[in-house]
Design brief:
Two copies of one chain form a homodimer.
Chain A lengths: L1 E5 L3 E8 L7 E3 L2 E7 L1 H11 L4 E7 L1 H11 L5 E3 L2 E2 L5 E8 L5 E5 L7 H14 L5 E5 L10 H11 L4 E4 L2 H9 L4 E2 L3 H8 L4 H10 L4 E5 L5 E5 L2 E5 L12 H14 L4 H17 L8 H8 L5 E3 L1
Parallel strand pairs in A: 1-5, 1-10, 2-8, 5-6, 5-7, 10-11, 11-12, 12-13
Antiparallel strand pairs in A: 2-4, 8-9, 13-14, 14-15, 15-16
Helix pairs in contact in A: 1-8, 4-5, 6-7, 8-9, 9-10
Amino acid sequence: MILTVTLNTALDLTYRVRSLRPHASHRVSEVIERPGGKGVNVARVLAALGHEVTVTGFVGGGTGRAVRDRLSGTAGLTDALLPVTGATRRTIAVVDELSGDTTQLNEPGPQISRPEWATFLAHYEALLPSMSAVALCGSLPPGVPVGAYANLVRVARTRGVPVLLDTSGEPLRRGVAARPDLIKPNAGELAELTGSHEPLRATQDARRRGAHTVVASLGADGLLAVTPEGRWRATPPARIPGNPTGAGDSAVAGLLSGLMEKLPWPERLARAVALSAATVAAPAAGEFDRRTFEELLGRVSPRLIA
Amino acid sequence: MILTVTLNTALDLTYRVRSLRPHASHRVSEVIERPGGKGVNVARVLAALGHEVTVTGFVGGGTGRAVRDRLSGTAGLTDALLPVTGATRRTIAVVDELSGDTTQLNEPGPQISRPEWATFLAHYEALLPSMSAVALCGSLPPGVPVGAYANLVRVARTRGVPVLLDTSGEPLRRGVAARPDLIKPNAGELAELTGSHEPLRATQDARRRGAHTVVASLGADGLLAVTPEGRWRATPPARIPGNPTGAGDSAVAGLLSGLMEKLPWPERLARAVALSAATVAAPAAGEFDRRTFEELLGRVSPRLIA
């Protein structure tokens, strides 16, 4: 069983409009509602790959009820979300029909009280013994201490559970110092963490800061992995047009599933790159296209870097 | 008791962002949730003025639950909304902190089935006998026949209940032909109905099409009323800066409350103009500022037009 933690779950709405114009009024022609937050996205991809996965984090209000309702139909996925007083945030992706471009509006998330955070810590510790890996994903809602992920990384390491961290800014900086097994920053997060815009140098620097393994996601350039066993670059065989929303979460799911199946690093990376590209290619944001995934999987050949 | 009908109720969200830029990502710094839809707004203002009011229309899903929860605390307001399978729509007003300008995103609303519409008609007929006036307000959700308001106007007239219609486009055109007691179009709706952009000519033409009385709302120029007792113009004493959202709904509430209290037309119009201006002046969209209302009330003097 894999545990994914999403402290700031979301109800993700996708709105289709003709063309977004500031200060005008728009009729939304289509509304799609999905449960969201990075860890929830990772869990859905893991479940689609046939893994058993438990989802935890905070959930509240009518939006939280909508998230839980929609998760309850997913085979292989167990809901261990913790109810809180505040309401789960919404995120809104406004897609222009004319250009296909997306404008994003993200609510901040509910205020988490000190007792709610303490309850979560106990809940997390109780879940860990039955887990073979844990992924800590996404932003922190208001009220959660900035060192939250560092704390959750330490608890997982004490229990001997491999822990992946995928966040940004100060929570990432502190989390890395707690020595997670794996981090998966994108180019911007990596540059913010290390101060370097040169991916290989920055990735190596992130390891020195405490991460056992660093897999950097570089958009269309694929993944750069610096591991104790070696360094690899894995790139998609072609430029895939589409919507990159959720591509990083699919890469995290690919890496975790490879860890569970004890695949060698090149196979893990090939899977993560193919899943990521198949997510860009899917018509709905955050889904992956299974045919594209299977078709690409054999065509990604990670290169060892000297 | 006054009845307001809102076939397309809404959960109105107001988002504050620094400045909306198409195709960028935005953190929403503040989220305000309110029950909405024109008839709901009218009812809230009527209740605040001390009138007993019943709200009906369709409501569904988690968003519908949020609307009902928020209405339940309003003194003087009775919830007679009819549950449907589809979910109540959201409307999103994105307010730029820098300019104060607003970008509007409106979901279309739930699909109403034929049996749901038939159930509503029976529900409406059952409510009417205890009502002294009815207001039919706003857009039609998908699935409701375009002649819906014409039908509701005729039923009210058969029962001898005064009926006000505030909508646009084809539902207004058909509704007017069913001879409502009062319509309150804005300049755009009036021009669309009559083909004339000259307010006095268009207002008189709207009466010839069937409306007993026409009160046109002309934004900062106030109201133009063509009634069987005479024609008046009522303008605010000064240009009021602020957010015009809900100003038309407050005018409708002013006219209805004046009808209930059997006020002479000049007093009804003065009240409607002062409420409308006090809504523009209020910090939250759709609320009215009571001090501004009371201060302006004595300063609006409708002029009789020869």
